[in-house]
Design goal:
Length: 237
Amino acid sequence: MIQIRGLAFRAGDFSVRDVTLDVATGEYFVLLGPNGSGKTLLIHCLCGLQRAESGSIAIGGRDVTRSEPRFRRVGYVPQDYGLFPHLDVARNVTFALRAAGLSLADALHKVAPLVEMLHLAKLMDHSPQTLSGGERQKVALARAMALQPQLLLLDEPVSALDGPTRAEVLQQLRHVQRQFAVTTIHVCHSIDEAEAVADRAGVMIDGRLVQTGRLAELIQNPAGAEVARLLQVGRKS
């Protein structure tokens, strides 16, 4: 269970204000909102890259509001995937495990189910620069999942991919999430993308979480004109 209570902070001139949210254990939650609404800032705060000024964050019943990122058990996939260009796929995927003290052989053994599930075995000695966008996304996902996080954060995970690749990666994201039962928060602005993966969704507008619920409920009963406009614009015609 992820419990966020009255979370507030500033980043430059922008502020995220009074965010309260529960995400159930094993739930796939999609956070929707226009560009500049604070979605990425919120997940930065959840993983410890942005400090909260007030409010609290609990992951699995443990207060992590002031904890360093390495103590939060959070896996994070940034929008640009954040792969290390000087390391091959194997060393990217096992990076956190190696940092925790495992040998490369032990780390590779531990991530073997992920590698198989994401069809990465043939790419393990490749450089990230030689991979397609979909392959890089899968490597980033495997790296984020290697430490078996309690919370997985995905920031626009398929925004840079073409249509067929996007659909394939969304299917894989949902498959991995279900197989490992990891609580997930996925940031995007596409309703079609949200429909492909979400158990439940929320909408951020101007630094505030203004509505949460099943996606169908949000579409049928939007909490105001801005939410209605976002959900209408975000759906493909």
